[in-house]
Amino acid sequence: MKFVTTPIPDLLIIESQVWKDERGFFMETYNQNPFKTQGIAATFVQDNLSCSHRGVLRGMHAQAGDNAQGKLVRVLHGRVLDVAVDIRKHSETFGQSFSLILDGNGAKSLWIPPGFLHGFLSLEDNTLFAYKVTGFYDKTGELGVRWDDPDLAIDWPMDRDELIVSEKDQQLPFLSDIVSPF
Ligand SMILES: Cc1cn([C@H]2C[C@H](O)[C@@H](COP(=O)(O)OP(=O)(O)O[C@H]3O[C@@H](C)C(=O)[C@@H](O)[C@H]3O)O2)c(=O)[nH]c1=O
After folding, report:
1. Ligand 1 lined by 118 (C-beta under 6 Å)
2. What's the total number of domains in the chain?
3. pTM score, two decimals?
């Protein structure tokens, strides 16, 4: 399990070692020990899975408070552009986003600590997006920012009229309209 830094401190790409043989492959998708060695004391309490059509954009979401969430995200089938935005008030990279393609080979995942907005655009039908989180789902701690907030300036690789965005996500505020709880 290899940890690769990104331009945003604490936001890490994780590459699993893939053991291929005549049957297919095996990989560890999470192992507590290398996480500990990296100084990530994450305890995952919930595993989530969503399935999305091409053009579905979910985001930009975070969960704060007693059940603040760090997320370990990966794609099991299909392909997404995955995006995290640093909203830690005292961070030098506050407001900066990082994007990467995650695809169904599943060997690459992203560790998104608490203090980040997260979202993704599904680039293929039947995209299975799996993630572990460090806090239980808690509606009272949910917050979000619009995916098309000009301050985030995220370069989504699809035309606006192709996107499928939930009613809830269309109502989200801009980053400048909220006070980050992180
Ligand atoms: C996230 C979540 C949702 N739900 C329910 C609430 C709602 O009725 C239904 C769909 O919820 P949402 O519309 O919030 O699902 P979705 O838009 O997929 O939300 C997710 O988006 C990505 C980008 C993230 O980063 C996740 O943390 C999460 O916020 O599922 C749970 O029961 N448990 C959960 O942990």
Report:
1. yes
2. 1
3. 0.97
